[in-house]
Amino acid sequence: MDIFSGLLQGFAIAFTPMNLLFAFIGAVLGTAVGVLPGLGPAATIALLLPATYSISSPVTAIILMAGIFYGSMYGGSTTSILLNLPGEAASVVTCIDGYKMAQQGRAGAALGIAAIGSFVAGTVGIVGMTFFAPAIAGFALSFGPPEKFSLAVVGLLLAVTLSGASIVKGLIMMATGLLLANVGLDPISGKTRFAFGVTELNSGFDFVTLAMGVFGLGEIFYGLEQTMKGELVTTKVGQVWPTMKDWVASRMAILRGTLIGFFIGVIPGGGAVISSLVSYAVEKRVAKDPSRFGHGAIEGVAGPESANNAASSSSFIPLLTLGIPGNASIAMIFAALLIKGVTPGPFLIQEHPEIFWGVIASMYIGNVMLLVLNLPLVGLWAQLVRVPFAIMAPVIILFTAIGSYSVQGQVFDIYSLVGFGLFGYALRKLKIEAGPLVLAFVLGPMVESAMRQSLLMSGGSFAVFVTRPISATLIGLFVALAIGQAGMALWKRRRATTGNSNRT
Amino acid sequence: MKRLAASLTAILAVAAFSATAMAADYPTKPVQAVVPMAAGGSTDLLARAVEKYWAKYSKQPMVIVNKPGGGGVVGTEGVVRSKPDGYTLYIGYGSGHDVVMPTLQKMPYDPQKDLVAVSRVSIHSVVILAGANAPYNNIKELIAYAKKEGKPITTAVSVKAGAVDLALTAFGKAAGVNIVTVPFSGGAEATTALAGGHLMIGGGHPSEVIPHIKAGRFKALAVALPERDPSMPNVPTLKEQGVNVGTWGSIKGLAAPAGTPKEVVAQIDATIKKICDDPEFKKTMADLNQPILYQNSEDFAKFIKQATADYAALIKELNIKID
Q1: 3-class DSSP assignment, residue A388
Q2: Three-state DSSP class for residue B156
Q3: From CA B123, how far away is CA B228, in angstroms rounded?
Q4: Which one of A183, A385, A426, B178 is most buried, counting C-beta atoms within 10 A?
Q5: In Å, how far is A339's CA from the nearest CA of chain B?
Q6: Angle B187-195/B206-214 helices, nearest 10 degrees?
Q7: Cβ separation of B160 and A203 shorter than 8 Å?
Q8: Which of A53, A144, A453 sits opposite B52 (nearest CB)?
């Protein structure tokens, strides 16, 4: 049929030596960018944009840029697992169990399962895109401000549950994250808030700086006081590959993560982050023993890593079928195509079938390349944990400083990086999980603008959140989750007190 | 004393000589052009198009640097504070934060005194849109619909107090229609929400909305310029449809820090003029749905002054405040 002949044509284009070469360069660059803290795919694509003008064929240019984008999703998990350093918001969740696994000497297993999960999710995502792109695109458009608000609120709730044992600590972190997100321009009125006359704060704090400070630098400051441990993480490298047992445990998590990522990733803005959160929460809930989560559960790595990769594939759908860029990296690809005289959107498949199918075919190939590229690297990365702290710590500090400076070219961001590092250190000392803070920081602006936009639309009536079917379903889910969570906490507390009274 | 005077004269002479020498063989190194908006937006696209053809007419390449944030103020302030030697330029001069924002809030610099206009490249007009199956096809029908239903007309705009917001608010006031503008974070997000059918009408720049109009997702009701927009000549203006509102949209040009030598400004302006006359550049800009409306530095400076005054009068008339 049409799809098959299109795909065949696409493979014919993607398999030309030139396009294969550029898909490979994209995959390599993407992996590197994902691994290097701070340097994100959007910044890299922006830097390479001028170079793409000299690439004569638009297909080749977009194959390169797409490779960088989904390649970075593969690489992003590496620093999260090895160094507790999330490169982007969608990898924050991976830190929780991934880093624990690395500390237990299971870095190889975590990295391996992340690579395999990413491959499966990426490929399934592209298959889904091949067959259902137009249908899914309509679903993406049905998310207006009220739906986005309800989705982000569910995301916030899930973020709080990441805090592990203490819900109160999770709530404190969420509130702090929301407050930090308030710094900068008010998204609706345009007035500057909490900037205290500092021009650099007019645009608010930068996510990459916050995440690298609170997680990465905080970890290093904490490491400084552990007397002469020698290594950053552990001496044990252990099994480099995932065992059969790991594979069995993660199989379903990868599939569930893929489905969650594919659907939620389509929604423009924040799709990938929320999908990784939802996947983690689902895995924790279906697990036979949820208490393993937060202490190195492999499903906690497999699920979210699959989800964010499936989301990166499906985020191409709104671009290719509607001409709507859903995130910063896709927006750069959008710009590159426009400069090349190609308008992404509903006519793309008719006017430029070679681009539409060429890109899709190249994504199948690119995912295989990434797997082949990344699996052997797993062994190498896993050795990284043995590098002495005295060498590793300065290197990380240097890279994070360069990374945070590179985002906006502001020295101020390096100061805030150090400030967030000290804050992260304090959190470690107080045994508070920083995940909810960072995620609330990402979701906060989405909650705020979506709510205020919804209320403007409805003339101030809150009914808008429960009269629209998708939004009402999400709010219902939120209420059920909140009640469930509160019930569970109460039950645990009662059990704890009865346990105490038994002892006395 | 004499010695001091002599050495001062010598220094001045050298300085003057180097200034002329600098202008004569400008540029001797790559020229940095700051775009104070996010990469991928309409200003960025224009800058990338200029960058591409700049290499054809200049000895040195142009390097685009995106410095988004603070509604454009952060990146522009960076240009204002940099050395006025022609190696740091600003692309996007005439945007909302140059001609609208100064009337509404305190600025860390004066967009007219601290910058020197180099050349105008384009104007992004404001188009009033509706979903393809909306029950109105032009402004008259929209007004009639609003009066009949008596409901507020929810309107998607890119940002608060931006060119689109002002044009739509002004239209509401002039036509006696209750327009409720809902600001988003940028044009792409606003058009996406309108495409999803979540709002009744919306506004946007041609570069953002023409692809959607071609896709049959939107219909254009009017252009809020004093004259028709060359990139969509079939769409009548508001004035033609009986509503006396015309704004300047969002102006896109180049500027340099105040104090940049006149010769250097003239040379950059000449380069931009050549780019604007290049048939391939014209084709690229047509693909981007951005009309080329070149003006030289002198006319452009006057135009910016006029636009700022007009916007100030409009803001006063509409009683818009940021609180």
Answers
A1: strand
A2: strand
A3: 12
A4: A385
A5: 7
A6: 30
A7: no
A8: A53
Nearest CA in chain A to B321: A189
- Sign for the CA dihedral angle at B50, B53, B57, B63 comes to positive
Widest CA span in chain B: 86
Q: Which residue of B has its CA nearest to A322?
A: B212
Q: Is B282 on the interface with A (CB under 8 A)?
A: no
Residue B170 has which token pair? Answer: 């002004």
- Degrees (nearest 5) of the Cα angle A435, A436, A442? 95
Residue B175, exposed/middle/buried by CB under 10 A (0-12, 13-18, 19+)? buried
Query: What local confidence, expressed as pLDDT, does residue A174 receive?
Result: 92
Would you state the pLDDT for residue A503? 46
Q: pTM of the full predicted structure?
A: 0.84
d(CA B265, nearest CA chain A) in Å: 24
Q: Looking at this predicted complex, what is its ipTM?
A: 0.82
The pLDDT, as a whole number, for residue A239 is: 65
Pair B36, B72: CB distance under 8 Å: yes
- Strands B201-204 and B153-157, how do they pair? parallel
Are the beta carbons of B211 and A203 separated by less than 8 Å?
no
Do the beta carbons of residue A53 and residue A339 sit within 8 Å?
yes
**Are the Cβ atoms of A328 and B73 closer than 8 angstroms?**
no
Distances in Å between the Cα of A229 and the Cα atoms of A218, A223, A386, B154 are 17, 8, 11, 62
Q: Which of A8-12, A123-127, A488-492, B110-114 has the lowest mean pLDDT?
A: A488-492
> What is the band of A504 on the pLDDT scale with cuts at 50, 70, 90?
very low
3-class SS of residue A443: helix
Supply the pLDDT for residue B35: 92
Tell if the CB–CB gap between B52 and A325 is shorter than 8 Å: no
Q: How far apart are the CA of B136 and the nearest CA of chain A, in angstroms?
A: 19
Quote the CA–CA distance of B81 and B277 in Å, as a whole number: 32
The H or E element containing residue B130 is strand B127-131
Is A460 near chain B, with CB under 8 Å? no
Alpha carbon separation from A102 to A97, A112, A179, A375, A391 (Å, rounded):
9, 12, 32, 17, 18
d(CA A84, CA A94): 9
If pLDDT is split at 50, 70 and 90, which confidence band does A82 have? confident
Query: Which chain A residues contact residue B152 at CB under 8 A?
Result: 459
B270 within 8 A of B23, measured Cβ to Cβ: no
Fill in the amino acid letter for A83: L
Residue B256 DSSP label: E
> Residue A453: which of A118, A214, A28, A145 has the closest Cα?
A145
